[in-house]
Amino acid sequence: MATIYIDNKAYEVKEGKNLLETCLTLGFNLPYFCWHPAMGSVGACRQCAVKVFKDETDTRGRITMSCMESVSNELRLSISDADAVQFRANIIEWLMTNHPHDCAVCDEGGSCHLQDMTVMTGHNYRRFEYKKRTYQNQYLGPFINHEMNRCIQCYRCVRFYKDYAGGKDLDVFAAHNHVYFGRSEDGILQNEFSGNLAEVCPTGVFTDKTLKEHYTRKWDFTSAPSVCQHCSLGCNIIAAERYGELRQITSRYNGEVNGYFICDRGRFGYEFVNSPLRIKEAKLRDENSKDLNKKNLLNKTSALITPGKTIGIGSPRTSMESNFALRKLIGAENFYQGISEQEASLHKLILEVMNSGIAYIPSLKEVEEADAILVLGEDLHNSAPMLALAVRQAIQKGPSELKTSLPAWHSLALKEFIQQEHAPLFIANPLKTQLDELAQASLNLSPAEIIQLGYAIAHHIDSASPIEHLLSESLLKEAKAIAKALSKAKKPLIITGTSSMQEGLVKAAANIAKSLKTANLCFVEHECNSLGLAMMDAPPLEEAMKHVFLNDTDTVIILENDLYRRTSSGNVDRFFEACKEIIVIDHLHNKTTQKASVLIPTGTFAESDGTLINNEGRAQSFFQALNAKNELIQESWRWLNELFSLQKGISIKDRTSPHELLEEIAIAMPQFKGIAQAVLQSDFRINGQRIPREPHRYSGRTAMNAHDNVSEPKPAQDLDTPMSFTMEGYRGEPPSSIIPFYWSPGWNSVQSVNKFQIEIGGALHGGDPGIRLINNKEGMSSYYDNNFVPIELKDQEWLAIPVQHIYGSDELSIHTPGVTERSPQPYIGLNKLDAENLNLQDGSKVTFETDGEEVTLPLRIITELPRKVAILPHGLQDFNCHLPIILRIKNLKKSR
Amino acid sequence: MFSIIRSIWLTSLHMFRKRATIEYPEHKAPLHPRYRGRIVLTRDPDGMERCVGCYLCAAACPVDCIALQATEDENHRRYPEFFRINFSRCIFCGYCEEACPTYAIQLIPDFEISEYDRQNLVYEKQDLLISGEGKYPGYNYYKVAGLDAGVKNKGEGDNEEPPIDIHSLLP
Ligand code: SF4
Ligand code: SF4
Ligand code: SF4
Ligand code: SF4
Ligand code: FES
């Protein structure tokens, strides 16, 4: 701690920080542009000037950039000094000389940091009489809009895109006052985190193009705190609604999880909510769906559910509440996980390892602190994008033995100091990954080789760990090097996951972690609630099928799950034939909903309250942003609860709130102890007031529905949460788990998050939201055995494994037009030599047999792919769901 | 006593003054052009809609009776897809006009908008849009804005340099 004097008043502050963040932490309004809490300082914009004095007697002082000066004891500075104030006003005036007269048509307006800072410094009249500089814009793809005239040359965009996120195709061009931020030529921004440019850029140069399609100002949104549904990391997001449509996703700060950023799949994948494929009407056998109102749908559905003769199939892409409500309705013994046996057993194993306490399960923030990382069989940019970003930060910090006195915020100096020295990163994956450029070694191996490499590493560290089988000399050498680097590290981290569906990977990773004793271990799963569903510990889909085939069960309730994505279509078809009633609850039409005899519409995450459990076992709640006019669109758990009430003869009016449901979960399944703390009780109030989802400037309340009826309808009530759907309520800072939007007086842009943090870049006031459910420390008693069974592949046989695509592999985000545009078409990937042997070129048709049917796909030649391994993109076709399999390629070599 | 007579006298004198009351509706009061009555949406000198859908009027409105949705044409010119004013709520404060950066929304000296049915006081864009420029002739926002919305090319605005050639190394 140090004492500093700001305008002659003493403050106790933390050392090692710069003056800007210190002033902001203390609550002062000090303008800035180029500094960013996640990216540090470069001192480029000169906006954050303050005056620093030598000592008490110094009256002249010197103007300095507060972002470039460290806190030191007894330091005296002045924010309100007349020279400093004038200096800051001049800087804004200069920045504004070329700024276009665009605010009215600029998407940044109303959430613009430049507007905020201009108002803050008091500049309001243009004295500069000369002409303004102009630029041509570029086409940057379906996600980001470019309007270069608005640039103030703060360099934040390139610092984020290139230095922080590792992007290659955005840069600064030209010289002096002509500098240009863009691509070398028009084209789609390639980096998976490009959407953050819209938040990082303090002006309207880079803005969200999908928002432009239905543009709404920030003050007009009804927003809700939400959680991303598109991978297992559970990044926190803000979901924003206007006129009954979901219109924008922005990142919601969570110091433990995603920090300031989210990936493009999470930001732009929201449009499935507004998709024409949405289920809006119920279907009940052949009845006219128009007659089905909520009440008779409930009654008729309830009549079909016979206790004991009904089974339920849960889903990894819906909330804990919904899964639990289904389990409660049909009984624990009739509840099944809606995933394949293969995936379920993989999850079970992961949970076993996580619960064993052999390793610490880090949050994304803690991943950034690792000093040696090993990634086994995951392409993180495609399977868990934000984890890739966290790994990059850890590695770019440089090796731990690189000692420096430079403070952590001094980003440019640190970059110069570190140069190309990276912390050790090792990647073993069938394909190249984008992190390879940072890796000490990146090995493209077959799944079996990756597993054996893992065992070899563990065996090197601790010879009690089972020995590897069949590894080449060179790979053994690699294993030795990796083992050495990992044992040397203080915070080694091993990352693996379910992408390639290999149990061996989990076991090998666990063995390495155990051998290291103090390792961090991070698992990646497929879906947003994969781990939560796994924790419910129910039998898999195949068991449900068996149950129906063997018993006289006749009704199945399928909860938000397209079974055709889970197991072979033949199996699913046979299963559906055996069921008399197929009750499907879902929000988008898919192959399963077509088979439904009863189809019940449900809300997406934007229309629902619920809780998800992410890959580190953190329970996080999302809240309803959108209030559907259609009474049939309500949360699955509400439908199921209402059915439960009907069955039990309880009045439906006795609503169960999400909090109560979570408490029930914790009672029914002790492994979820504490989960109810993830949400506040619905009667939580501050000064007797709710937290409003709408800002106080929300407009159009008395006109937006006036074309239907000039008398305004009663505002929607929220009985489930402490938030309101209106602008009335408590105007101060909400509790961290229910912050619907960031705003603070004078801070309209997302930078206002500063005001919500205990310390800049640290936890939110009251602690970051989310409850970690996995804290067990039982200790894994013994190493996993190495059950190595070599796979014999015949001449025409290949081992087909799934690969993840950030755009395409996820079931929901693919319904966003921009994501569809960027998703690959189905293909099969083969090694170059393999293709040559088959006499095939890139793009030629490959015919192979899988699942009893013949499939033909275009070929992608992938140079680095190990031989006799074929890759198929996950999620793009039904038959890809039960990989890995052995497939027979039918294209015969003609020249033989 | 005297003061009573004086008051009667002074009051009676008013009988010979010029009348302030006029026979409305036969006669109409002359209203100043800046009188704050019915709201219109005007057009720019080129006859295009002036409103750029910036939502500032809606935000300024103290009774929240303006609702609109911005959209763009093929030239990326932004305009309102719908624009609705609920005159049964409007208090004619003129804040919307003051907030408008384009002179699009203007209050005009017409107050005769009474209706038997309140629903008829909900005006849509076609009811609001007039064919002229209203009180402020000559202004065309897209000519002074930086972006290219099909009105002028980049760098061709009144106050703009030609676009930078980013390949040039000259100072
Ligand atoms: S970047 Fe900000 S200040 Fe500039 S035109 Fe856009 S809203 Fe206005
Ligand atoms: S484009 Fe935005 S982030 Fe980049 S330099 Fe310009 S103002 Fe800064
Ligand atoms: S990393 Fe995953 S959870 Fe985070 S924003 Fe991307 S898709 Fe969503
Ligand atoms: S303030 Fe003017 S330009 Fe903006 S939306 Fe209203 S009428 Fe249109
Ligand atoms: S924020 Fe300090 S110089 Fe830019």
Automatic annotation (TrEMBL), chain A:
GO biological process, one term: ATP synthesis coupled electron transport
Limits of the 4Fe-4S Mo/W bis-MGD-type domain: 221-277
GO cellular component term, pick one: membrane
Reaction equation(s) it catalyzes: a quinone + NADH + 5 H(+)(in) = a quinol + NAD(+) + 4 H(+)(out)
Key words of the record: 2Fe-2S, 4Fe-4S, Iron, Iron-sulfur, Metal-binding, NAD, Quinone, Translocase, Ubiquinone
Stored SUPFAM superfamilies: 2Fe-2S ferredoxin-like, 4Fe-4S ferredoxins, ADC-like, Formate dehydrogenase/DMSO reductase, domains 1-3
Required cofactor names: [4Fe-4S] cluster; [2Fe-2S] cluster
UniProt cross-references to SMART domains, sorted A to Z: Molybdop_Fe4S4 (SM00926), NADH-G_4Fe-4S_3 (SM00929)
Membrane-spanning parts: none
Stated family: Belongs to the complex I 75 kDa subunit family.
Entry protein name: NADH-quinone oxidoreductase subunit G
Organism this protein belongs to: Solitalea koreensis
TrEMBL record, chain B:
Similarity comment: family membership: Belongs to the complex I 23 kDa subunit family.
Main localization of the protein described in the UniProt heading: membrane
Quaternary assembly: NDH-1 is composed of 14 different subunits. Subunits NuoA, H, J, K, L, M, N constitute the membrane sector of the complex. NDH-1 is composed of 13 different subunits. Subunits NuoA, H, J, K, L, M, N constitute the membrane sector of the complex.
Protein name as annotated: NADH-quinone oxidoreductase subunit I
Reaction catalysed by this enzyme: a quinone + NADH + 5 H(+)(in) = a quinol + NAD(+) + 4 H(+)(out)
Positions that bind [4Fe-4S] cluster 1: C51, C54, C57, C100
EC number of the protein: 7.1.1.-
Listed SUPFAM superfamilies: 4Fe-4S ferredoxins
NCBIfam families named among the record's database cross-references: NuoI, PRK05888.1-1
